[in-house]
Write a structure and sequence with these properties.
alpha/beta, Rossmann fold, 3 domains, eight-stranded mixed beta sheet, 18 strands, about 20% strand
Length: about 600
């Protein structure tokens, strides 16, 4: 009723500049009486329309939209709006370009208009992020549907806060995901970007959801049993399955399957591309880019929750906590106390997709107790090449890092590279000797000036069983006993701070500097794509998606296992050296008891 009066009086005031909207004015009271009389006659139809528009909000927008409207709702946008109106819990996993935030804000503006004195909110991991998203969407909404703005009494916008107050007493604002928000009261809320790594599920459950403890009281003074109360709408892109977003998505999906008032849906990039909301060429460019993570593409553009939720080899949380190393290293740092271990996974098949060789550089810093602090300071990846070429490449890297050992996968095609490493390749580097050649496979080819450098790892041997190597990787990451390079943006910032100069955008220097950080992203993607499998007494791994390789992970696994064996030797040596043999022959004089 307040909305009806508001529209009528404002419309009259626009038509007649001398019209006085003071309620004491006789003409105003006369108009109001006529309005009330006319409205009483139309009340049944009004109720029917209200009920209809609450079920078909897109039809209401068609009803109020001007003829020269700048936009027309797409079919999928109408469906999403109806879902948000008809279900208490909604979870939408949608790719970029779907206009999901615009639709959520549009739905909440309409809910505030159609349900007087309602209180709704939205939130996101960052307070400024939520305020910015909301403000941008509201500006577009009021531009496309100007009549909706006429219902707004106050539009408050700040850097980290947004609030709408409607003439009918409804309110819509941004809530911070902090303990300071405790005690507030709302009747429904939208949670943006729940798939963000910074999203705190504990705060959502302990602070945000309790805001919706009460139900809206209708204009009649009672709670409408037919109304949907305590709305929860989640809008996000996909995340790794180990994050809170996937658990919440499964929860709402299960509620939907059980027949509750819940709806779980989503879309990939094909939908917005179909309607021209997203450029298909841009998407294809991202998909083919060698520097863009496959898993990132699956999450951002295909709306696929990647990895495994319950049996992942390494948890997403542990993996992120290990990414603390800011500066990549391209050669030995000069400190004589540290060692460098090079670990190599071999591929010789050229031209085949995913046929990559990977070299992991592990820096070992002694802790003084035979244990090392482990840092992955660089990663190299290349298409499979001839054995001789790979051997020459490895010898150059051993020289640059003054490596203590080169751990190499000697199973199958890897043995061919070892064959070349033990030879003199006339490249200025010495021939190598295999330090663990139990079967004398390469000993007969060793040259006089060969240096002990190669650890030929074979997973079928008892001392280097694949099961033991997998368990060691889980232990290392479980104890956060390794450091990985940061993300490209963070790493480049640290590098610029150290060198006291900024890289030029799109420069070759910047592209080269980013490579170790990008390849570390790829390594993390490979790890997150692996599931742990127990087969009898043995541990094994399984790829969730076969399109994602595991060459970098394999190289890391080999290198870490050599470090494990070395630490084990150090402990044994230390234990033996601490034994004082003289004390073994010190006997106490026996005590004789006298009766």
């Amino acid at each position: 009723m307040s909305s009806y009066n508001n529209f009528s009086l404002k419309d009259r005031a626009r038509k007649d500049s001398n019209f006085n909207t003071n309620p004491d004015n006789f003409e105003v009271r006369k108009v109001n009486k006529k309005q009330v009389k006319d409205f009483q006659a139309l009340k049944p139809k009004w109720r029917e329309l209200c009920s209809y528009f609450r079920y078909y909000p897109d039809k209401f927008l068609d009803f109020i939209q001007p003829e020269d409207a700048k936009i027309k709702l797409y079919f999928y946008q109408r469906i999403y709006l109806r879902i948000m109106f008809r279900y208490r819990k909604v979870f939408i996993t949608a790719t970029r370009g779907t206009s999901k935030s615009f639709l959520q804000n549009l739905a909440f503006v309409l809910l505030c208009i159609m349900y007087p004195r309602t209180k709704l909110f939205c939130c996101a991991p960052g307070k400024e992020q939520a305020a910015r998203i909301t403000q941008e969407c509201l500006d577009d909404i009021f531009e496309f549907f100007p009549l909706l703005k006429e219902e707004v009494k106050i539009f408050k916008r700040e850097k980290d806060y947004t609030k709408l107050v409607f003439y009918n007493g409804s309110k819509y604002d941004v809530v911070q995901m902090k303990d300071s928000s405790r005690g507030g009261r709302r009747f429904g809320g939208a949670i943006e970007e729940i798939g963000d790594k910074k999203f705190d599920g504990d705060i959502l459950n302990s602070v945000v959801i309790p805001l919706m403890a009460n139900s809206r009281v209708a204009m009649c003074g009672k709670v409408d049993p037919n109304e949907i109360h305590k709305r929860e709408i989640y809008i996000t892109t996909a995340s790794p399955q180990q994050q809170f977003a996937y658990a919440k998505c499964k929860e709402i999906f299960n509620d939907m399957m059980n027949g509750d008032s819940a709806f779980c849906t989503g879309n990939s990039y094909e939908l917005p591309c179909m309607y021209g909301q997203l450029d298909i060429d841009f998407v294809e460019e991202k998909k083919e880019s060698p520097t863009y993570s496959i898993l990132d593409f699956m999450r951002e553009y295909e709306s696929i929750y990647t990895g495994s939720d319950s049996d992942s080899l390494v948890s997403d949380e542990k993996l992120n906590k290990c990414r603390t190393l800011g500066i990549a290293e391209w050669e030995h740092c000069g400190d004589t106390k540290v060692q460098y271990v090079l670990a190599y996974d071999v591929s010789r098949s050229t031209g085949r997709e995913n046929a990559l060789s990977a070299l992991i550089v592990i820096k070992l810093i002694p802790r003084g107790d035979g244990i090392y602090h482990k840092q992955v300071v660089n990663i190299f990846s290349m298409e499979g090449q001839h054995d001789t070429w790979q051997a020459k490449f490895l010898k150059e890297k051993v020289k640059e890092y003054k490596a203590s050992i080169l751990v190499i996968d000697a199973n199958g095609i890897g043995s061919g590279v070892v064959d070349q490493l033990v030879l003199d390749l006339n490249d200025g580097n010495p021939p190598y000797k295999v330090v663990n050649d139990i079967d004398n496979q390469w000993t007969k080819y060793e040259l006089v000036d060969a240096i002990p450098m190669v650890f030929a790892l074979k997973s079928q041997r008892k001392e280097t069983r694949n099961s033991d190597m997998i368990n060691n990787v889980m232990k290392v990451f479980g104890k956060l006993d390794i450091e990985l390079l940061k993300t490209p943006n963070e790493g480049i910032k640290d590098l610029e701070k150290k060198n006291k100069k900024k890289f030029k955008d799109d420069s070759e220097e910047l592209a080269i500097a980013e490579i170790p950080y990008i390849l570390t992203n790829n390594l993390c993607d490979e790890i997150m794509n692996l599931k742990y499998k127990q087969r009898g007494n043995d541990s094994d791994i399984e790829q969730v998606s076969r399109s994602i390789p595991k060459d970098k992970f394999s190289a890391l696994m080999y290198g870490l296992f050599w470090v494990h064996l070395e630490e084990k030797k150090n402990k044994e040596r230390k234990g033996n050296s601490n034994v004082d043999i003289n004390k073994l022959f010190n006997f106490r004089k026996p005590q004789i008891r006298r009766r």
